[in-house]
Each structure stands twice: as structure tokens, then as C-alpha cells.
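Lecture 7 notes: from sequence to structure.
We start with the chain below.
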Amino acid sequence: MMYPLDMLDLTDGSKFVFGINEDTAIDVVKTSKGLNLKSNNTGFSRWNSLDLQFVCVNKKDRKHILETKEAPNQLTKGSLPDNVFLLDSYKPMYVQEKQALITLFGEDTYRFIMKKSEELFRDILPSPI
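Predicted C-alpha cells for the same chain:
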């Protein structure tokens, strides 16, 4: 429900929450038999590398659609409804789903997710505050 966030249950009973990106997505290739893992797969998310094309996580493709009205890949349409996925009102998932994260994991975990997200994406995300 909180795509593109993902959550792993660790062996000590705790949870690890992270967002999909090139490092966490499972590396897949299309074959005649469907999708297969790449032999040198480094991803560990439930989401695969094709999910990175969805406009909710791909700002570059969203910008392309808004500017050209053309589909940048086979998973998206060449248009977006008014006021959906606009670049200037973009909110990172940890901001959009703040209350859900606090309810599920507590205030301390939310602050940790926010701090780490801001460290990782300081140069590419608008300030959520």
C-alpha cells in the first residue's frame, strides 16, 4: 500500500524500511519466458528494476510527459491528469505517508527515515518543510 516504500522483516524481529531505487530494486531482464533475475543481481526489494519506470518514482519520466505529452516507456501513457504527479508539488513518500509511518513504527523511526532520506536525496528532492 505504500509503494515505493518497502519493508523487510529482519531475523531479530525488527523491520527495515526503505524506498525503491536503482540499488534496492531487483535486477530483472525480459526473456521469452517472462521476467528472470539477472545473474549479477544486487537488488533486495520486492520491487524490480522495471518498477523504476512508474511515474510515481521516476521524476525524469514524469518531467518528460509533462513537457512533451509523449510516453517515455511502455509502462506509461503520454499524458497525466491535471494536478497529478506535478513536479512542483512533489512530496517524497515518507512525507506523504508520515502519519501511517508514525502509526506503524513510531515517531523515532519516522525521524530516522526522514533524516536518512534527506541525507540521501538532499540534492534532488525539494524540501518537505
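Points to note: Residues 91-129 form one domain. Strands lie at 5-9, 15-19, 28-31, 34-37.
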